[in-house]
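During the no-cost extension, the postdoctoral fellow (Dr. R.K.) reprocessed legacy sequence entries with the updated structure-token encoder. One reprocessed record is reproduced below for audit purposes.
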Amino acid sequence: DAEIFRTGVMKAWVGVLLVVLVLLGAGAGIPIVPGVFKLNLEADILILAVTAMVAAIGAIGLNIVTGFAGQVSLGHAFFLGVGAFTAATLGGEEVVRSVSSGDIVRGYELDIIIWLPAAGIAAALCGLVVAPVAFRLRGLYLAFVTLGLVFLGGHLLRQFKEITGGIGLGRDTAIPSLLGFRFDQEGNVFGIFLSAGQKHFFLVLVLLIVMALAAKNLARSRIGRALSAIRDRDIAAEIMGISLTRYKVIAFVVSSFYAGIAGALLYSVIGRLEPTEFGELPGLLLSVEYIAMVLIGGVATISGSIMGAVFIVFLPRVVEELASTGLLGFIGEGVGEGLLDVSQFSRVLFGVFVVGFLIFEPLGLYGVWIRVRNYWRAFPFSY
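Re-encoded structure tokens follow.
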């Protein structure tokens, strides 16, 4: 029961999924109806796919502390910001804005093999600092303490202009370069021409697989079992000899590490970074989005985190497509058009899905998948 892939059928389907993702990322496409319809990832959809995979890494990290350890955190945006600016400083270019005033934005143009782990480590160190305060609290009190990180972090990021670039100016993000190979430039790879988006797709896909497997192994290890025991019955776990302090600190540190990696990758794809993106209101909304990924995807499940991230990232695009076809007549494609525009209706759906899953399917999309799988596994005796 503790194995990652318990049956040969599961291994086969995972292999099929990976082949499909590779073909889509390479632009080969998947023939749905031979000679009629072929599924391809357009450039904008490819960027959304990359964003969803990066968000999945961050959601997995949040699920470790919230789902597996049962510690509600609303400060995830703070750790994303720490990772993003650490990567931008180590992997970005140095910019001199004013020679007379000495206005400089620091950058060292280091390789991704340095700035990506450094981004995770910097966020993990911040999590280590916060953990001694956080592990003494639970529930609503812990949520408010972690929420305070967003406000504190937003203030600090506005002050350190040499790192963040300052309000309204920002800075360029880290250059995704591995031993001279640039992921942000198109070119041939093993004789196959790939765009910058496709290169980012494969980079993030590999990292997502590695970090998802690492989190899955952590969940089925002694640490994962201890975190589950603390989540379900912390007093009973402590009586059994499980150190609440030690394992809660581990959960916060690992979760922060994942958030730092996600923040570094996300903004290296976007290419521009501003401190206001992690400020009070934007930071709170970003943290809530990651909480929603965990709730909608499935608490305490790695695959659920990935499902939730894909769902949240692609939801506005799905609404936009429905609005363009006219199926939802009350939705306008632009601001001021129709009863609601695409952005407003996306936010409404966001809230409806969060409340709906909490009430009707607490296990989220992972729970829906389990129901469907069990139905067809027992078919035709699916009663």
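Residues 244-270 form the longest helix (27 residues). The chain has 14 helices and twelve strands. The remaining legacy entries will be reprocessed before the final report is submitted.
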